[in-house]
Amino acid sequence: MKYIDIVQDFQKYLREISNSLYLVMDGACFEDLPDNLRRERLKHISLYLENVDPDRSRSGPFLVEIGDRLEDIFYIFRNHDVGVFWIWSLSFDELCKHLRSINLIYLEGSGVSLFRHYDPVVLENIHGVLLPGQKKRLIGRADGILIPCDEGDIRKIVIRDDVPSSSGSLRLTSKQVEEVELRHITVRLRSDILKFNDIANIHYSHESVFKAIRWSHEILKKRSKPTMLDYYDLATIYCLYGEDALLRSGMLEFLETAQFPISDARALLNFLCQNALEKESIGV
Which of 8, 82, 228, 255 has a CA that sits 20 to 30 A from residue 151's CA? Predict the structure, then answer.
C-alpha cells in the first residue's frame, strides 16, 4: 500500500497523535532514502549499527520522527510503499534503542535471522502468531504499533502493561515459523485466488483463503519441495469445490499420492468435474 492510499479517516487519526508518532521506513524501497530525509530536514537515524557498510545501511530500516511534518511526509512519499508507525511517548533515542534490539529474531530450526519489522506484511504475519509475552517483547514500552493493511486500513497492535515480556531476543518456535510461512504464502496467493470471486460468484475472505492454504500444506507435507504453484493449485481447488466434495469424489486419494502431479491445475479441475458428473450426489 502507498501513502496516498491511506484513507482520510486514518490520516485524521494520525494527525491527532502526530506528536507521539514515529515512522520506520524501509530504505530498500528507495534509491537513496537517507539523502531524501536529509534534503527534507526530517530527523532520522539508521536502525543498523554505526559500523555497518554505508551501502547496506542505505537499504536498511530508518526511524523517522514525524512531529508536525505528517502532511509533508504523506506528500513527499505519496507514491512509495508505506512503512510502520509507532506510537511512542518516550524519547527518540529510546525508541531507536528498542527497535535495534528487535532487528534480529531467533527461528527454531534455522537460527538467527534478520527481522524485517519495518515491512508491514512481515510484521503482520509474525505478529499474528506471537504469544502475549512475545508480543510484549515486540512492542516494548510503545503505546501501540500501527500496521497499514489492505484498502487503506490500519491495524493497531497494543498489549496491556501488566503482561510480562519474554526475555532476550525475540524467538519463534518451529510451529510458529511454519505458521508464519503459511501466512506469507496466503498473502502472496490471496489476490490471485480471489479472482475466482468473479468466476464463481462467491466471496472468499482472507480467512477462507488462509484455511485453504493450511489445508494445502497438510497435503503437501507428504511431498518434497512443494512450489508456490502447488499451493496455488490446491488452494484454488479447495476454494472452488470445498473439502466435502473432494472427499466424496475420491480426489484426496490422488492428491495425497506423491507421484500424482499437482502442477497442472486444469487437469485436476477437469478430473474433479468428471467425477462430479458421474456422482450426482456431489452436487457441483
Answer: 228
